[in-house]
Amino acid sequence: MASSSPHIFEDKFEVIQVDPDGKKFEKVSRIVCHGESYEMELVLDVHFGLFKCKVGEKINFALTSTIDPSGQKEDNTYDQRERKTLMDGYDYVMHGRVFQIDEDKKTTDSIIYASFGGLMMSLKGNSRNFTQLEPDMRVYAMAKKVASSMEEEE
């Protein structure tokens, strides 16, 4: 990706489990996904009333440093002007912070942990796929369901 791109990481994932350890909160589900291009594992807590997922569904998932399509950094306040943003291309968006990065000494894998107002994310895979992420970095997690071929035909 070009350095001016706001996307830090982007891939298509298949949902392989929903609430694998049982439902912990009424409106929150934990989805476990497997990445298609980079063979990554994504575990993501989502507000199930806003972003319902079923096993077998596919989602596009991205981590970005900004919602500005040009990649311009934002200050620490949300600009409420009506404008085009990267959020326009996604169904579900959260803003949060990377709080930990663990590296596996035996492989080239890393696990990125982020919190989005208490909703957690972990992303595990080859560390070369997310070299721009750093602890305490603010990020946007963006997800969009991918239409199945049957839905596209209707």
Write up what this structure looks like.
- With 154 residues, the chain is mainly β.
- It has one domain: Nucleic acid-binding proteins (OB fold (Dihydrolipoamide Acetyltransferase, E2P)).
- Helices cover 3% and strands 46% of the residues.
- The protein contains 1 helix and 8 strands, in the order E-E-E-E-E-E-E-E-H.
- Strands 1-2-3-7-6-5-8-4 form an 8-stranded antiparallel beta barrel.
- It starts with 6 loop residues before the first strand and ends with a helix.
- Its main location: nucleus.
- It is found in: Nucleus.
- One of its GO terms (cellular component) is RNA polymerase II, core complex.
List keywords for this structure.
single chain, 154 residues, mainly beta, OB fold (Dihydrolipoamide Acetyltransferase, E2P), eight-stranded antiparallel β-barrel, 8 strands, 46% strand, globular, NA-bd_OB-fold, nucleus
